[in-house]
């Protein structure tokens, strides 16, 4: 069957070695030498570095050795019609793309593929990930581009608005949207195949959340907090929680409160409480400390003993973390906080109220007004689940957005009353916000399923390596009919994402493992062979029931192409 060579449509030409010395065997050595010699940056050299650097830190070192004005000048220059950002995206180094966009790179730049066809950077990321068999990296690149403000309307709306369903090969009747006139014919067919379920969900998310205002951007930039508005792209669902967290963090930053920000995340396990706390840490680029509160019964357990009692000079992990970050912003996660005692609650009153803590080791005052304390708890599970069942479970996504705010305020009132009963009025009064995390909807849990399948596929991609005890590898997972597969992963609202992860391990990972171990081959030979192509699909089983099947579909190599009859 003839092929549509989409790899040629998005192909970036190779670049001759651009430096004035004989190239070494390792590109990283050449880049290091270019930094040492302070050779002038040209667009050829920048694109060569982006194309050939084995690791992102080599690229960052190279870029940071030049004045910002020189980097910006080269980012606005094309190499034979190709902007350097396309080489950055093709490298699949997400952090490098973020760096270049921050330095002035045009995130909506287009690739002049051929006369009449210019492919936007975000579409290029999807096509590149599909062709090169790096779906997970392609998706992470799309996530970053959208989080940084890429225009989601460059992709036709009909391809992502109903994100659960795979987009149609052909555009619906009528004129294409003005920003998406490029997307027709064979390139539309290719993009329909390349956009996976998570990609489509991210495009849908970009429609849902508005960008920060000019004033918000200025304030957040000045406080190194602008990435706060990227939060919706890094957590599946939990729209209400994200909005409450963003508002609380924005208020804390703008007002410059003398007290730390204290939040409590409530809701059933496995629905993103800990994940969201870690994402806040990552996006704000701050330190993080996790306290398991299961055994925190006495104030010594959490902060260490006072002098002169034995062990006071050692402090405690939390005591030392706060002291080491005196006055700086950081995130402290107090996990399973409902298991703490009244003595621990009393110990937290002063730092939560005054933004000052006394180091147990030496008595020095420690500033903690910039700290973000996040408590997680299952204390409110019954109330939050009942609210979801009564007010959200049977509503469409659009209807949920229009739920009366009074109903949410009533939930907050009930949760705060229960919090006062359990933690006492003094501590409850110092907690700024109770953030409820709801169960996943029927259109949300398949996204969580797909996210975990992508992670599994990415973990199986590298070759096996006996020396490093890596026995499973050189595998590509291809999901046929993502909608059906991801909807047939078991989701238990009491266990959340953990139930999804367990079912994927049982039905997909173990299916892959069985086929892999049946090979009459050696690890050394597998490491040198093409990727095994494991196909995950759905088959009928016992009437209306469906069963997830894993098949060995031979081998596959990059770049792959599209059959013209697709």
UniProtKB/TrEMBL annotation:
Presence of keyword ATP-binding: yes
PROSITE patterns found in the cross-reference section: ANK_REP_REGION, ANK_REPEAT
Keywords: ANK repeat, ATP-binding, Hydrolase, Nucleotide-binding
InterPro entries attached to this UniProt entry: Ankyrin_rpt, Ankyrin_rpt-contain_sf, ATPase_AAA_core, ClpA/B, ClpA_ClpB, P-loop_NTPase
Start-end of each ANK repeat: 80-112
One of the record's GO cellular component terms: mitochondrion
Superkingdom, taxonomy of origin: Eukaryota
SMART domains reported in the protein's UniProt record: ANK
Keyword Magnesium part of the UniProt annotation: no
Gene Ontology BP annotations: cellular response to heat
Start and end residues of each ATPase AAA-type core domain: 263-418
Gene Ontology MF terms in the entry: ATP binding; ATP hydrolysis activity
Protein name as catalogued: P-loop containing nucleoside triphosphate hydrolase protein
